[in-house]
Specification:
- By secondary structure, the chain is α+β, with helices and mostly antiparallel strands.
- 42% of the residues lie in helices and 11% in strands.
- The protein has 2 domains: 6-224, Hypothetical protein, domain 2 (Endonuclease III, domain 1, Orthogonal Bundle); 236-341, Nucleoside Triphosphate Pyrophosphohydrolase (Alpha-Beta Complex), CATH 3.90.79.10.
- Helix 1 (8-22) crosses helix 11, helix 2 (38-47) runs antiparallel to helix 8 and helix 9 (147-156) crosses helix 10 (167-175).
- The protein is globular and about 75 Å long.
- The protein binds a DNA duplex (11 and 11 nucleotides) through residues 44-56, 87-93, 96, 123-129, 132, 144, 146-149, 164, 187-188, 191, 194-195, 200-201, 231-232, 234, 260-263, 296-300, 329-331.
Length: 342
DNA sequence: CAAACGTGGCC
DNA sequence: TGGCCAAGTTT
């Protein structure tokens, strides 16, 4: 049952009080009501897209140490930024990150737009990130809706529509709770609650400041929300990756096309990846030896990559193994380790 | 608009 | 161990 307007201030106060006591000390956060640097807010929000805080934190520290301002990042070389992003996943984010930094430097004098609409126009900034930066960095009362907020709303109001169809309704419910008071803290409080208390599984309702008004808690089975539509199955693909070494032990790498899977990243030479195991022409003449296989799971398919090793030459980017390890996406780092071991 | 797009931790 | 899930955006 929806809250009546008179209930909203009490619910807001309960959650903001909880946040004052339990906010997570994340490295991109400020304390004492200090408004954070928009560059750091934006960078953290992009890194946090579909990514856990634990995974993003060391990357955030490395990026801000190396590129302290958006203008520093805008001036960086593409290959440096892509290599620094290696392992964090969703590499389109890194390409858009650079495009965004350069747009801010070139079109906005190195200053981030301070409105949701202005932010939304930037590359890699969608509805969530625009709202989050507007609220956290600029104190705008934006409706910040991520997966956490959706789950909290679905439970608070026991929404009967399954995701993803419920998204518009969950967004409206979240909007009904937004106010001018402490917009950035409100957004982060909702997300912290979702991440630490109103978790997907085994929610900690005993520690929740909102149980008094929570329909899912009242039902006795809060973990039943949000309802979800059945998922489609994940296909398996097969391919070959070649670990080619020259006389000095360097490894042959290629720069992948800008678009598509692992776009713009360094990679090992590979065959196409298809539904069946297939023979594929190697990228160079060598005494190829089988080195086993590695498994890797992407969002929309699982991959079995057969690894073959050999020594030879050719038109590649030749890289020392230690350098390659740090610059490669995880799937190729795994294949490289297999090739070097076997 | 449904599909593409990474990775690692958890149970 | 395999599915689920994490501060989404783009096309």
């Amino acid at each position: 049952m929806p809250l009546v307007p008179a209930d909203v201030p009490a619910l807001r106060a309960a959650l903001l009080d909880w946040y004052d006591a339990h906010a997570r000390p994340l490295v991109w956060r400020t304390t004492g009501g200090v408004r954070p640097d928009p560059y750091r807010v934006w960078l953290s929000e992009v890194m946090l897209q579909q990514t856990t805080t634990v995974h993003a934190a060391p990357y955030f520290e490395a990026f801000t140490a190396r590129w302290p301002t958006v203008s520093d990042l805008a001036a960086a070389a593409d290959a440096e930024v892509m290599a620094a992003w290696a392992g964090l996943g969703y590499y389109a984010r890194a390409r858009n990150l650079l495009a965004c930094a350069r747009a801010v430097a070139r079109d906005h004098g190195g200053v981030f737009p301070d409105t949701e609409a202005g932010l939304l126009a930037l590359p890699g900034v969608g509805p969530y990130t625009a709202a989050a930066v507007a609220a956290i960095a600029f104190g705008r009362p934006a409706n910040v809706v991520d997966g956490n907020v959706e789950r909290v709303m679905a439970r608070l109001f026991a929404v009967g529509t399954p995701l993803p169809a419920a998204k518009p309704e969950l967004r409206r419910l979240a909007a009904s709770l937004v106010a001018d008071d402490r917009p950035g803290d409100w957004a982060q409080a909702l997300m912290d609650l979702g991440a630490t208390v109103c978790r997907p599984g085994r929610p900690l309702c005993h520690a929740c400041p909102l149980t008094v008004r929570c329909a899912a808690f009242a039902s006795g089975t809060p973990e039943r929300w949000p309802l979800k539509a059945p998922k489609t199955e994940r296909p398996r693909r097969h391919g070959v990756a070649w670990v080619l070494r020259d006389g000095q032990g360097r490894v042959a790498l290629v720069r992948r096309p800008e678009k598509g899977l692992l776009g713009g990243m360094l990679g090992l030479p590979t065959s196409d990846w298809g539904p069946a195991v297939a023979e594929a022409p190697p990228p160079a003449a060598a005494d190829w030896r089988d080195a086993g296989a590695v498994e890797h799971v992407f969002t929309h398919f699982a991959l079995t990559l057969t690894v073959r090793t050999g020594q030879g030459r050719g038109d590649f980017l030749w890289s020392a193994p230690d350098e390659a390890r740090t610059a490669l996406p995880t799937v190729f780092r795994k294949a490289l380790e297999r090739g070097l071991a076997g």
